[in-house]
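Technical annex B. To support the medicinal chemistry partners, we prepared a structural model of the target in complex with iron/sulfur cluster, based solely on the information shown next.
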Amino acid sequence: MQRDADGVASSPHIHSGASVAGVMRRVLAALAPGVMVSAWFLGPGVLLQIGIATVAALAAEAAMLSVRGLAMRPFLFDGTAIVAGVLLGLAMPPLAPWWLASLAAVFAMVVVKHAHGGVGHNLFNPAMAGYALLLVCFPYAMKSWPAPGAEAWAADVLGAVFLVDTAKVDAVSGATALSFVRDGLRGMKMLAELRPGAGASLLGGGAAWVNLAFLGGGLALLAARVIRWQIPAGFIAGLLAVSLLLYLGDAQRHASPLFHLMGGATMLGAFFIATDPVSSPVTPRGRLVFGLLVGAVVVLIRRFGQYPDGVAFAVLLMNAAAPLIDRHTRPRVYGERDTR
Amino acid sequence: MFTAIAMAVLVLGALMAARVLVAASASPPRGSHGLAADIDRLLPQTQCGRCLHAGCRPYAEAIARGAARINQCPPGGEATIRRLAQLLGVEPLALNPRHGRQAPASVVIIDEEACIGCTRCIQACPVDAIVGAARQMHTVITAECTGCELCIPPCPVDCIAVVPAPAAQHAWQWPAPGRVSA
Amino acid sequence: MSTVLRGFHGGVRLPRSKETLQGTGSRSVALPPLLIYPLQAHVGTPARPVVGVGQKVRRDELLAAPSSYVSQAIHAGTSGVIVEIAARAVIHPGGVTDTCIVLRADGEDRRLTPAPALDLGRATPEGLLARIAEAGIVGMGGAGFPSHVKLREGLLNAVRLLIINAVECEPYIACDECMIRERAADVLLGARILRQALRASQCVIALEDDMQQARAALSRRDLAGAQIVRVPAIYPAGGERQLIRMITGAEVPAHGLPIDAGVVMHNAATAAAVADAVAGGLPLTERLVTVAGAVRTPANLRVRIGTPIAHLLDACGRSAADARVIVGGPMMGTRLIDEPAPVVKTTNCVLRLPAAAEDCTMPCIRCGDCVEVCPAQLQPQALYELARAGDWDGASDLHLFDCIECGACAYVCPSRLPLVHYYRHAKSEIEALELAQRRAAELRSRYEARLRRLAQAGDAAAEAEGQAGSDVDAAPAPAAVPDRAAMRAEIAAAVARTKARRTANTPAAAGEDEDGAR
Ligand code: SF4
Ligand code: SF4
Ligand code: SF4
Ligand code: SF4
Ligand code: SF4
């Protein structure tokens, strides 16, 4: 199949037809339902942020490819930049100013991806690294999520995003359901006290639906064998285990496992973010370990950290450990005696 | 947040500690012959002196003393330089052209008709690859000749020539695949 | 009846591409004008020719005899005259030539009288092994290991299980399936002989799940205690190690052989050839070859070993202009560089594959698909990174040499990396390096011996040598070498080369590009 100058070609002489672009196309298709449901509940700002992040990511990718003197066509359209852009857009508050998403996308592509050698060489998940940058540098702007169900429609959204005129949009609230609960608990209130007010929208307000939609897309990816079960299963198991432990310890001061499962970016994280192949382990057991650790850390950050959601930091932390996890989970080679 | 970070750091720390332990237990014991012997093991033993030392072992000792650089052995070429760099933990250098350049394996043959049997070549050959007696035709044992060419200058009738080594010594190899982009 | 076995790690479902051939009969092909026999068409040392140019031979006559314990005999495929013993194109990925015996057919196809059949009731393993060796049989499904050597090793190691491998897991290849349908009795007889030669207590015949007709053909007959098992049509279910794992549940140890797992495995075509040799007295001179892909009439052809591959393609008709010729299956076969190269005993398939569109390789995205399909349970992506970086030690530590080069990893890789090419390159670099190091060790000891001798003898040695020389002063000059003139010319050329090289070695010219040879 491959041919070099001498005309020497090694077997195999046929190929399955799989390609990186094909994989990424299927990831994008599986993201679609979740994106639609998010847009339904959070307004068109979601789509706008995705658009901004994707365009910025593609532009940054193109610029880096030309700087590095690499072929434009195969790399620009391999889909990796688009997927990173979409994931980043999904992580953005819908009404954040345009330059926030652009900054994150450019950072993700230039510093996280290309400075490490481009596709396949990045240690960290580019989208999550871009998002983390914003969380650290612009914490307030990143916490401004519209109150669930609020009517923030086209004109207002455009104004908010491009004119940075958030004052005009009265739908902006300071909290997501997740941070609402956490801040409440931090303030030593009991969970029961929180329930009547915003409680109704804890699992309502679309979060559960959004998670279900991403779950559906994720299962489709599993069925299409684009991703493997280990990371999502580990993620969910780790998340449930830690949240159950906390919940059993003191049900009044900790949110229920179900809340963690259906709130925030749980399903998006489990099926689409943590499964980014480049920055996660390769071995099957390593993936399970990786998933478990990410899921556990997500709960810890949600409960004790001060960020809107824990997925980004949990994934980034474990990205750093991925090579190590790989090294310690190598499967036994055929014919080798099991020494473990 | 701090708890989370502390936990993550703990987990990472534990993994790294485990790795260091594993690496320590897996690293082979150091050879007992010292550095010069380790270096000598990586040299091709052509004994040609192109490194400007009296042979591979003296060159190895010079490297070990820090008196010679690792890029002076043309018969070993890039591969040897790379391995020396790895052993010594230094950056590989390009072969110093002052010492000659890397070439395909070769051996010498003696034109048996012209040879006057003066035995000077035998005295020069570092690996006893030439047989013959005084005033008799001399012959090179091809399989044992390193191609060092040390026998050529002493020959008074210039009857020793360099030819490519027989096929077995450079059998077909899978070439490196064509470059993969990026 | 039998259930389908499971239980080998990894593997990949491939398009079978052999449905049209399964169920059709074999076809014979006209005798080519020239039959070509490479001396090295088996594992081991090359055979030693026992015929000379100009000699007339009949079919089944010995052309070359084994040159060592691991070597194999070659027999004439038809009657005719030896016209050449010289370097010719052979099946080789790099287009390297090899010494071949070339036989021009006289068209009469006269045979030697076959050797008498051996009486199985009284034959000893020794007698059977001798007959199998005389018939020049090598493993017809794999690398071509001399069959009698495999059997003898199995006998010495008291192996209990004989496996007849009829699993054709590669796409397109259907010659064994066809052979079993047509010659089921011979396959069973061969299995019985092999079992007797091995003194094996058990015999298992492994078929693929979709070979219903072949299975029926076998099970209609007396299996004589052999057991038929079915394996799933997952590549590489027919791999020696995978099949052993499925049948016995045990694994061949790393760096070990099947006999270390108590198994000897022979291909079904080999079994039939053994039946021919023992019951028919005939050496191996013919085999079935699947010709498929971009040809007008795909077929299982009955081919005389030694037939040029171009002749088979002519017989089936080439249907696409621009195609690559693959000998063997598409997953592990060799891309043929010279079409006149001949069919050898191991050639099971000749394939024309339409030229692929320019492949665009991407960097590894660590998707892990290769890890999942690797039947050797390796880390193909890690091996790739190490091989690409030239880290041979690292690659060896990650079990590079346990890779069976099945190509499953490269087949599924979405980045379309030529993974197997990297592994082959790394393996041959490592082997060359080890060879060089062995040689260096040898040279070092010679050098050190010389230094010791010089130190001991001092100058006296040189003088003694001089005196010894004078004793044979009057010895006559050695007999003239036949083609002295040619030799002188060669030396002159060599001297010129040396001069050129010395010029090239001067610092001024050193900037020019290194040719990378070691
Ligand atoms: S140049 Fe290399 S081969 Fe020649 S003597 Fe020096 S170290 Fe040995
Ligand atoms: S015969 Fe000449 S070239 Fe060969 S090893 Fe001896 S001295 Fe060197
Ligand atoms: S030095 Fe030259 S002439 Fe003297 S013995 Fe050697 S080859 Fe013959
Ligand atoms: S299949 Fe290819 S891209 Fe995926 S991990 Fe293996 S080598 Fe890398
Ligand atoms: S070619 Fe080697 S590494 Fe690749 S799947 Fe086969 S055994 Fe594994």
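Notes passed to the chemistry partners:
The radius of gyration of chain C is 27 Å.
The first helix of chain C runs from residue 125 to 134.
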